[in-house]
Every structure is written in structure tokens, then in C-alpha cells.
Amino acid sequence: MQSNIVLSNVEYKVVGKRPIRHDGVDKVTGKARYAADVQLPGALHGKVLRSPHAHAIIKSIDTSKAEALPGVMAVVTSKDLAVVPDRLAQVGEDAFLSLRYLSNNVLAGDKVLYKGHAVAAVAAENPHDAEEALKLIQVDYEVLPAVTNVEDAMKPDAPILHEHMTTASFDDRYPQKTNIAGYQQFKQGDVEKGFEEADVVVEREFRTKTVHQGYIEPQSATASWSHDGRITIWNSSQNPFGIRDNTARILGIRSSKIKLIPMEIGGGFGGKLGTYLEPVAAVLSKKSGRSVTLTMSRVDVMEATGPAPGSYMKAKIGVTKDGRITAVEAYLAFEAGAYPGSPIGGATACMLTPYDIPNLVLDAYDVVDNKPKTAAYRAPGAPLGAFAIEILLDELSEKLGMDPIEFRLLNAAKEGTRRADGTLNPPIGVVEVMEAVKSHPHYSAPLEGPNRGRGVAVGFWRNNTGPSCAVANVNGDGTVMLVEGSVDIGGSRVAVAQQLAEVLGIPVEDVFPEVADTDSIGFTSLTAGSGVAFKTGWAAITAARDIKDQLICRAALLWETEPENVEYVDGVLQHKADPELRMSFKEIAPKLNDTGGPVVGRGNVNPGGAGGSAAATLVDLEIDPETGKTQVLRCTVFQDAGKAIHPSYVEGQMQGGTAQGLGWAINEEYFMSDQGQLLNSSLLDYRMMTSLDVPMIDTVIVEVANPGHPFGVRGVGEGSIVPPMAAVANAVYRATGIRMTELPMSPGVLLEAAENKSKG
């Protein structure tokens, strides 16, 4: 069941409709080309040698035997990369990493810091020769103790990953080596006083495991380094300009020397923002004089690309007997993996945003350990923070004898409420989302039978923006070629095209959107942060307005009048004083070359005002007491889209994020050995939800217009993954009477919890 709760009376001709996406036929028929489909004449096959150890010093690397193997054309190590400055580069949503760390993650320098860390790479005439060459590379390791969870990594006697990292970073008088890479604190009001005013206080500890985004298509890159020093790279990427720039820095060349062509992308969810293969493929191409293709195996993806972090959290909430929250205190420690940069910022900024909290303290720690460097995963950090807060709120509502949604509504954030990070809320749809849950038939439907429970949770994601570019060329037949810089994930091409079509008053079927390479369009920031429909929509709107202005001038020229006497309304140019003078968009298009040349609209923007999105998950489940297996029976997801440009793809984003959240809650985790080996690096062993596990997820789109966008758009790609884990935990409690505070809530964990409960 899909439904919309529209709180704006604005009706559009194209925006809000459900046209067929322009790239749909190619994708369902297999004609769309992905990164691994790139096959250049004479291309070599690349392979990467990866560390078998989670933590070790590289004493030496001998590549001579590999280089002598027939068919091998090039071998590279970190010595083939440039010496880079220790400055920050963007690697994800609000995530920055030292270039030195980034380069060392691409090819290890003095140390390997996780099992699967790239150490060297080869290029050969065929994949078999490349595989054989890897076996001939001799690496002398001095193996060190490994640490693979955040709590152990913070202990004083923990193995140290980076010798230069000390507590002096936090102004300690006595600097000691540490794995704590960063610290963040938000404070508001007087927390001690807030807890004194509370009648009921709950406090719990929470632990979560590392999980992977689980995109279908592995990373792949093909590089061709020409004799004039120009490099062309084809890859699977959410961040073409960022990867171009970071690759250039790692190679020690200007970014203008690299042309990056983003192919169609088989999923990313934040995991394809980083730079992994591109610099390696480029250097192999330079040394061999041939183009080189590198494609990760699934094991490579699991072991050596960025997952979401494991965490340890403590949270404490106080409320009055009438249900008012008086204070919140939370401690968060997130794994960054091998290099600094866990998403503590996303957690602290969003975990309390749905509520009006007068007194709070949030302390968050970024901690390195011997796992792959974490990357963004759909609302990075926010699901973990919400997991802790929403479970405690459910417990408090029970202790107070209040309905869970009524309790949340009593404390709901509104326009003007101050967030934990100090931001004052603009118009925000938290109340409207909660009201939608409360009035939905699912919320009041009977749930009968043993071992069944219903849970609800609310979440928030702030959404991002950034620079974006769009260029629209008017064709002589009245169609428009729309060139944009945002990689399309989830149907953003059609959503951007709809916004241009709406402004021009033409059918979206007459707009042909294409994603350009980095040479053919202006800088466009990453496809992440639920920002594309917002920022690139703004660019398309700006380009459409530019076209309108030019067409008014062309019509004025044809009618021998001044532009101020001409108006453009619903795709028609008309003289304000002479109704006989009218031309449609299609009618003027053939006349453009004779009235001054082509008409090209430009949109070069960096818009503010990206509105955050509130979401809620309502889930029914059943637990088998014999096996501990959890079966989701029914799920409804609610989200504020501001304005759903293409409702079908908004619903798809809501369903996709929710399905991933359910998997995170019930099954998914990295199983690590004491030596830092990932023990479930295949999709047979890493248990993601399948069609047999997830029921049809019903969606309710709430529309509280965002004043920062002409059509009221809010990003929707991430908010839906924030509440499912807490909603499942709350449903598990209703089914079993056990408060679960660890992820995942897998069968073994549930059985152990039930056994502990029975023992008292």
C-alpha cells in the first residue's frame, strides 16, 4: 500500500508525476554499460596483492620474480605513487581524510593495517598470468598484534596503529600514544539540573557490529595513460570529480590531466565515494604503456572497501512523570577502521533532532582499529545514534504508561527548536510524520498470536547539498538535451529532468538527460547526502530559467518588440498586448539558429537550504522460540519528502533503505577472528535480507514543503534507514519481553538472551 499525505496545495504538471525513467529500458534489457563492461583494445588485466595480516610492518617487497614472468607488463607498489602533503581531501559525506592516509590506503606504505590492505599490483596479458605474478611477489612482514573492536582499541594497552597519534591532540598534559583519532562534544542547557528534574531515568549500553553496504556491483576501474600525459579513467563511482581530484593528488599531477568517465553504477549507498583502484590502474597503465582494467572480487569488496562502523554507546534519558524529556546524556565510540574518519558527526547531529531536548551532552569518539577504513553508508552514523535513543524512548513510554507515539509527539521538534549541534530548525516534518504513524491503520491493527511484537521508531537525516552543474541544449525539434554532473542512483536522471520540464512547460519525455564525464560538465559534488534531486534539481531549474530568458529575447526579435513585452507561460511565448502573437516551445525551436544561434541554458549553483527529512518505521514480527529466527510480518515506512518529484522512486528509496535497515537489525555483521581475519567475506556467509525475508514494505509519503527549494524538495535516500533497527528492537521486546541492545539481533543472540532471561 502506498499513500501520500500532502500538506501543500501546489499541483504541478510534471513534478509529482510518475513518468517512465529514461534509462529504464537499457537497464532492464542489459544494454546499460557498467565499469566492468569497458573493454579497450589491447587492455591488460590487473590484479592486486593484498595483505594476509591485519597489522604488520612491511620490511621489504621484492617484485623481481613477478616482473620477470612472461606476460607481465608492469608491477607497482606504493613507491610508484607521489609523495603527498598531509592535508585533507573529501572522501565521503562530510568525511575528510589526510591525503597521506588516502594514498596509504590505496597502496600500503610502511605498514598494513587490515587484512586485505593493498600492497602491490600487477598488469599482465591475461588474468592467469596476473594471478601467478601475485604469488611471486615476496613481502617480508613483521606481524603485530591486531585490535578489531572499538572498546579494545581504546584500552591503554591496545596495539597502536599510528605511532604519531597521541592524546596531545586533546590537550592532555602527558601525551600518550592512542587509537583515539578524534573527539566531538555537543552541550546544551544544564544536564545535571535536567536529571534532577526528572521523575524517571533510564540508562543502557549498546553495541553494534561492522556492516557492509552490500551493493551488487563490485568496484572496477579502467585507466589509459596516453603519451601526452593525459589519463582517461572509466569507473563505478558516486563521486567522479572527487575521485578524479584525489587520484591526481596521489599521482602528483594536475586534476586537469585526468578525464574520469562514470559508467552506470550497480549500487553504492555511500560505499563508492572513495578512491581505491583508480590510481593503481593509472600507474600500471603508465608503466606498461597499455590500458589496464582492475575489478574487485566480492572478497576484495568485503575486506578492502569501506563498511559502516561497529560501535559502543551509552545513553541516559530523564523524563518527568507527565512525559516531558528533561535531559539526555550520551557517549558514543565509533570504529573508523584503519584510518581516522568514522561518522560520529552524523550521529551527534541527527540522533536527537526529532525531539525538543532542553538539556543535553553528547560525547563522541573516533577510534581507529584493524579493519578497512569505514565509508559512508546511507545516513552515515545516524542509524546507530537512533538505535540507542529510540530504544530508551520506547522503554520510557512503557514506564510512564504512555502510547509510544503520543510520548514522542509530546516531545516532538518543530520549527524553531534548537538541535544538538546548535542549528535552529527551519520548517521540519517531524510532527506530521508522527501524526501519520498514529493515524495509520497499521498502528491500530490487531496483532494476534504468541511470540509476535510490534515496534515503532523515528529517525532523522539532515541531507546535504553542494556545487552542481547542468547544461541544457535546445534542439531544433523542440526537445532538450540535459547534461548533468550527478551520477544517477535510484532514478535521479528523471527527477532532475522533471524539474527542468516543469519550468519550461514541456513534457518530460522531450527531455533527454545524460550524465557527463568530468571534462564535459562543470564541477559537481558527490552523489550522496540525498542531495541530487535538491542541488542538481536547482541546477536544472536555473538552466531552464536561462532558456526561458533567451527564448523571450528571440521571440521579441521575431515580433520586432522589446523583451519586456513578451512573457513565457506554460511552455508558450506570447505578446502581452497582442494575443495573436503566440508561439509554443516546439514552434520557436526551429527558428533559433536563424535568430542568433543555438540556445543553451546553464545552471551553475551551490544552493543552501537543503531540508532535513524525518522518517518513521512501524514493524510487526514473529520470533521462533526454538530457533531464534525473526520473521518480519508487516512493515510500513513514513517519510517527509518535502515534495515527491517522482513518487515511485521516492517509494523505492524508502523501501530500499528500510530493507537494508531490517537486515542490519536482524542478520548483518562482520565476523572477525582474534587475528583480524574477516570470516564471512562472501555473500553466502554475510547474511543480507532476501525476498523471502522481507514482506512488501508499505510507504506513506508525507510532504512538508522545504522553503529552500522552488518545488519544496527534501532528499529522501537516507532517512528511511535510520529508524528500522530500533523499531525491530522495540518489536522484539513486545514479542519476548527482552530489551535487546546489540546489533544484529540474530537467532543465536536472541536464543542466548532468552536463556539468560529464563535463568533470571
What would a concise description of this structure say?
The protein has 760 residues and is an alpha+beta fold.
Can you put this structure into words, describing what you see?
A hairpin with a 5-residue loop joins strand 20 and strand 21 (480-484). Helix 11 runs parallel beside helix 19 (724-736) and helix 15 (492-504) runs parallel beside helix 16 (532-559). Among the domains are: 1-8 and 433-463 and 611-760, Aldehyde Oxidoreductase, domain 4; 468-605, 2-Layer Sandwich (Aldehyde Oxidoreductase, domain 4), CATH 3.30.365.10. Helices cover 27% and strands 25% of the residues. The two termini are 42 Å apart. The protein is built from 20 helices and 29 strands. With 760 residues, it is of the alpha+beta class.
Helices and strands in order, then pairings?
Layout lengths: L1 E5 L17 H6 L14 E7 L5 E7 L1 H5 L3 E6 L10 E5 L2 E4 H8 L4 E2 L5 E7 L2 H10 L1 E6 L6 H4 L26 E9 L2 H7 L2 E9 L11 E6 L5 E5 L4 H12 L6 E5 L15 H11 L3 E4 L2 H7 L6 E9 L5 E13 L6 H7 L9 E9 L13 H19 L3 H7 L19 H10 L1 H4 L7 E10 L6 E7 L5 E5 L7 H13 L6 E5 L16 H28 L6 E4 L2 E4 L6 E3 H4 L11 E6 L7 E11 L6 E11 L6 H20 L30 E7 L20 H13 L10 H12 L2
